[in-house]
Amino acid sequence: GLEEGVANMDIFDAVLDIESNLIKQGYQDGLEEGIREGTEEGTIVGFESGFDLGKELGYFLGCLEFWLLLSQKNPGQIATRTVTSITALHSQIVNLVVDPNLPFMYAVENIRNKFKVLATQLGVTNKMAMTHTEVDLSF
After folding, report:
1. What CA–CA distance (Å, rounded) separates 139 from 59?
2. Interatomic CA distance for residues 12 and 23, integer angstroms
3. Is there a smaller number of Cβ atoms within 10 Å at the N or the C end of the chain?
4. Is 48 exposed, middle or buried (0-12, 13-18, 19+ CB in 10 A)?
5. Chain-centre distance of CA 46, in angstroms?
């Protein structure tokens, strides 16, 4: 009777404890796996995004250097004010620093906007200059 009931309660409690422990262990395992996979995926996506961003900024620098060279070879073809803006943007990109108080993408968006303005001023309307999504080097 009574002893058998207590023994059954102990077995029931033990089964509940096993279930509870398995749930906790499953949660912990899932959390660790999620962190590991998230870190791997984040690294891959970050690398790809960084590569694309580097390609974009490199394109901008190439255009800016071309425009500066053009202005030196043909003085007066590009307005002095525009040459000053080209030089300033070139310097901004070359000296791009990550400021912990300013979101990095804010600085990148600022560069994109300035580049678009310069491209428009110079009459450049290629896909990259206007949308920065696809490199199209034809002018």
Report:
1. 13
2. 17
3. N
4. exposed
5. 6
Distance CA 139, CA 51 (A): 24
For residue 111 the two structure tokens come to 């560069």
**Predicted confidence (pLDDT) per residue in 61-118, tens digit:** 999 999 999 999 998 899 999 999 999 999 999 998 877 777 888 889 999 999 999 9
